[in-house]
């Protein structure tokens, strides 16, 4: 059974959970890393060596010595109850907090730092730094400007930051290719939609579509996460964006109000909101890479949900089928 | 040379949570007559000082901290003290996170803490690349803490009317001081055919150690390897060890009575064998038989073979007082300590263990605070004892003292953690359990912590929002908003001001935007303004700004009629600030030129009226804004008047034509 990719944030636990047959329960093969982990990413299977199962990277934040670590899952762990089953393969020291991380199919890792720069690393043969684009996102004052999101498609890399800029980079080029003033508030998440199209989320709950070929600084479309809660309008930050791997009209967003929203871009006025929302900000929401109908989301409050959209339910709401409660801070 | 009239002094003051700043300064001497009262600057170096703790940067200790916090919170939330029927044989380990809390009790919590302490010690010893002395020192502290928690568990938590002390104490000693087993193993391994096993100098010490720690089966097995095991001395000793009755740790009074009867019978047998002289051929066997008989002559043997007074104590109760009740242990502990001459040289661990045996729980807590790291141990111990209801009984008053003590310890530990960048959120989580005082501390911490970036602020907001700390939320948002304002990032400033419900700040930002637009005829925050919803109600400037943005959007999209309606509303409503009226007038003129048909004559007249009013007011008694507005209109005033006049004519003609 393939390990599902679960990204958990604000953790001191680095752990992976496998849905058991049918996805009804999670089996934990966790281990305590002792450092606050901001991002966890599996390395894509094409780039792994054959004898490594479930290799993943973790990056820390708010530590005196931040680290980027590579771990592998002990293959025998699937059959045992508990205990230390994750092996630390190597680690690199980092000066700043990691805010976001993406791994390309070709085995390159891109990290966003809290000082507004973006670093590129290679995974194999060993984890090592390749290049850092410094000062991509800059502030003019006391508040640091962090690079908040990164996505990669082929050679192209796109980053967004607190300064509201969307920056296009090329893996082989040390100078940024293009910079767009995308928003007057900070941008918090980004993903590639097609090769020249990018979707960004900002801290005002607006999701904007950008065609990178256009010269102007206007988006081609905007969606809104703001909603009326009681008497007050809430503007959740769009923390996470992802396009479905095969059905490109589907977009998934996770907001700071605990809502996971699925957009059908053919009919974007009526998004699907997942009913049992998280109690804390949703930090990541992803489509399962293997199980096409499943979505995984996790939040600051310490819960991770697996949503199975193939089960019969009311038209606009889904309930989670598995709920991994865990304690993190 | 003149003596210096200045003397150097180090000054320190509090700076933020849990931090001090320190610097040197020079101040006049007290006998200085020059009356110069101001201190001259000394060194230009300022030192930041904060309390350090192993929990801040040792990975093993961080793991301990996090795991123990989770168990601590399970205990608070699920009131485990009341689960009396939970299976006390269950040792949960890390499963405690997944087990249904209804199946847990205080004993399980204590065992979980011990497991985490054990793993912390093991982890510290594994990572030998750090400073070796420090690692050994820290691992010895955690080892001692595990010892202490285990004894506290035996004496206070895993203790019902049906349980007996001695077997548990034996397990306790065997677990932490298993040198005898190791020695026995090494003796067995080193066996060869050349010499009998009893020639190994460790043989008899191993047998003695095993018997002293009540591991009689192992002792018997080791004796069975003796080359002369068929001799009467050894055979009898082995047989006595085999028939020694064992008291189960639970079972109640009937089991104790049965055991007493069996024990007396067995003792009689041992003493008979001693009197018969069967052990006279082997001095070792004789001494061990005396020990089994609880003979006072054996006391010296026990003393010589005990490294610590508590090992001595456990052997003593095993063979002299096997059914001892817990309340007598204090007396026996004191006597053991005196035997070892410990009165004058008690170490911290000894103090705590003695206090546990004497059931002096407040002394235990006080000593733990002095001994162990950062208050972790005293807090968790106090909490366990508090929930077991054992602290209030001691004082004889109501539970308030115990409750206050627990709250104070939580606050002490929580604020220590909250002052550190790595574990501050754990500190807040602990403070959650300190009642209203904890809430107060959290409120202060969140407001004074400061944020380095928007992401930090979002985390602070989340922590404040979780606890409904509205004031803290507002403060955080307002501070971030002002920081963005200083950077001239008006969109973010506006957004944070709205988030923090700071109407006046939102209004100020909106005004800045409007002024920017009045000058530049364009503005940077157009993406923020749609969909603000109910957030704008608080501020007139914001309502105006949103409406103006709506007008611009609609006009740009070609929806001129609706756009113009909004524009007219904006001009004639009186909401427009004076400096912005020129912009509106220019827009009206432009719209009238391009699409006069969407206006009616009344509206156009009203617009002209507004222009008149502006000019008149500015000339007579105008504010600075009004005057500069008129000044900026100067070049285009004539054109606007012409356009408006023409449009009024056209509109009136069109209206008459309809009639």
From TrEMBL, chain A:
Compartmental location: Nucleus
Protein name: Uncharacterized protein
PROSITE patterns reported in the protein's UniProt record: WD_REPEATS_2
WD repeats: 250-273
The keyword Ligase is annotated on this UniProt entry: no
Transmembrane helix in keyword set: no
InterPro entries to which the protein is assigned, alphabetical: WD40/YVTN_repeat-like_dom_sf, WD40_repeat_dom_sf, WD40_rpt
């Amino acid at each position: 059974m393939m390990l599902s990719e679960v990204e958990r944030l604000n953790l001191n636990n680095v752990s992976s959970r496998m849905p058991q047959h049918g996805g009804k329960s999670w089996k934990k093969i966790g281990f305590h890393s002792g450092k606050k982990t901001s991002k966890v990413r599996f390395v894509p299977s094409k780039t792994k060596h054959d004898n490594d199962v479930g290799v993943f990277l973790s990056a820390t934040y708010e530590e005196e010595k931040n680290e980027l670590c590579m771990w592998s899952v002990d293959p025998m762990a699937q059959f045992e109850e508990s205990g230390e089953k994750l092996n630390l393969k190597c680690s690199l020291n980092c000066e700043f907090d990691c805010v976001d991380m993406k791994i390309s199919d070709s085995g390159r890792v891109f990290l966003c730092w809290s000082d507004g720069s973006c670093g590129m690393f290679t995974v194999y043969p060993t984890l090592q730094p390749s290049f850092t684009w410094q000062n991509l996102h800059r502030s003019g004052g006391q508040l640091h400007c962090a690079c908040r999101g990164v996505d990669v498609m082929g050679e192209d890399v796109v980053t967004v930051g607190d300064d509201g800029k969307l920056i296009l980079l090329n893996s082989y080029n040390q100078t940024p290719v293009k910079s767009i003033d995308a928003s007057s508030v900070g941008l918090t998440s980004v993903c590639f939609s097609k090769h020249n199209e990018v979707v960004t989320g900002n801290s005002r709950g607006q999701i904007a579509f950008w065609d990178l070929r256009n010269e102007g600084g206007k988006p081609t479309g905007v969606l809104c996460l703001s909603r009326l809660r009681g008497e007050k309008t809430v503007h959740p930050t769009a923390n996470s964006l992802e396009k479905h791997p095969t059905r490109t009209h589907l977009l998934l967003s996770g907001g700071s109000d605990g809502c996971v929203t699925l957009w059908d871009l053919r009919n974007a006025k009526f998004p699907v909101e997942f009913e049992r929302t998280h109690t804390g900000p949703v930090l990541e929401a992803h489509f399962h890479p293997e199980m096409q109908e499943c979505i995984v989301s996790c939040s600051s409050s310490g819960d991770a949900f697996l949503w199975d959209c193939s089960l019969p339910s009311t038209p606009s709401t889904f309930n989670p089928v598995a709920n991994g409660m865990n304690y993190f801070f | 040379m003149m003596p210096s009239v200045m003397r150097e002094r180090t000054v320190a003051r509090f700076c933020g949570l849990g931090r001090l700043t320190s610097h040197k300064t020079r101040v006049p001497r007290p006998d200085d007559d020059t009356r110069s009262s101001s201190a001259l600057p000394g060194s230009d170096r300022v030192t930041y000082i904060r309390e350090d703790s192993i929990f801040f940067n040792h990975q093993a200790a961080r793991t301990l901290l996090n795991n123990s916090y989770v168990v601590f919170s399970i205990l608070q939330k699920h009131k485990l003290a009341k689960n009396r029927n939970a299976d006390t044989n269950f040792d949960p380990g890390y499963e405690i996170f997944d087990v249904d809390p209804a199946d847990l009790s205080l004993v399980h919590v204590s065992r979980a803490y011990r497991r985490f302490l054990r793993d912390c010690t093991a982890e510290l010893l594994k990572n030998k690349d750090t400073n070796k002395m420090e690692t050994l020192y820290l691992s010895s502290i955690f080892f001692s803490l595990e010892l202490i928690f285990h004894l506290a568990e035996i004496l206070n938590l895993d203790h019902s009317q049906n349980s007996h002390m001695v077997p548990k104490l034996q397990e306790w000693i065997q677990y932490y001081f298993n040198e005898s087993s190791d020695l026995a193993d090494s003796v067995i391994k080193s066996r060869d055919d050349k010499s009998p096993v009893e020639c190994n100098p460790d043989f008899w010490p191993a047998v003695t150690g095993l018997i002293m720690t009540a591991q009689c089966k192992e002792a018997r097995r080791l004796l069975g390897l003796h080359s002369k095991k068929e001799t009467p001395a050894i055979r009898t000793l082995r047989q006595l060890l085999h028939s020694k009755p064992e008291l189960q740790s639970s079972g109640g009074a009937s089991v104790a009575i049965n055991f007493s009867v069996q024990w007396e019978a067995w003792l009689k047998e041992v003493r008979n064998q001693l009197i018969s002289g069967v052990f006279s051929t082997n001095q070792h066997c004789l001494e061990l038989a005396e020990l089994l008989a609880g003979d006072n002559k054996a006391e010296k043997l026990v003393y010589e073979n005990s490294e610590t007074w508590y090992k001595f104590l456990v052997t003593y109760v095993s063979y002299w007082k096997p059914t001892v009740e817990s309340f007598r242990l204090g007396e026996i502990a004191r006597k053991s300590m005196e035997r070892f001459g410990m009165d004058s040289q008690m170490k911290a661990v000894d103090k705590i263990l003695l206090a546990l045996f004497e059931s002096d729980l407040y002394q235990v807590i006080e000593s733990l605070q002095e001994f162990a790291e950062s208050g972790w141990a005293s807090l968790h111990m106090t909490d366990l004892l508090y929930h077991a209801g054992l602290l209030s009984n001691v004082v004889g008053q109501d539970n308030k003292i115990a409750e206050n003590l627990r709250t104070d310890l939580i606050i002490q530990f929580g604020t220590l953690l909250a002052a550190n960048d790595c574990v501050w959120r754990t500190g807040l989580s602990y403070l959650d359990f300190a009642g209203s005082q904890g809430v107060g501390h959290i409120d202060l911490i969140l407001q004074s912590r400061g944020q380095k970036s928007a992401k930090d602020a979002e985390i602070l907001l989340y922590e404040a929002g979780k606890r409904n700390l509205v004031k803290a939320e507002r403060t955080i948002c307002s501070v971030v908003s002002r920081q963005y304002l200083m950077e001239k990032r008006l969109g973010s400033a506006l957004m944070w001001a709205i988030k923090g419900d700071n109407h006046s700040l939102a209004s100020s930002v909106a005004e800045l935007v409007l002024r920017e637009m009045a000058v530049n005829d364009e503005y940077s925050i157009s993406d923020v303004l749609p969909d603000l919803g109910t957030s704008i109600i608080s501020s007139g400037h914001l309502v105006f700004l949103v409406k103006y943005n709506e007008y611009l959007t609609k006009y740009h999209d070609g929806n001129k009629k609706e756009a113009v309606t909004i524009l007219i509303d904006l001009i004639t409503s009186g909401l427009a600030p004076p400096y912005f009226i020129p912009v509106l007038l220019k827009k009206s003129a432009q719209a009238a030129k391009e699409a006069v048909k969407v206006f009616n004559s009344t509206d156009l007249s009203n617009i002209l009226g507004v222009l008149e009013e502006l000019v008149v007011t500015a000339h007579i008694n105008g504010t600075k804004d009004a005057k500069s507005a008129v000044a900026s209109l100067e070049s285009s005033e004539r054109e606007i008047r012409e356009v408006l006049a023409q449009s009024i004519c056209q509109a009136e003609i069109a209206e008459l034509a309809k009639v």
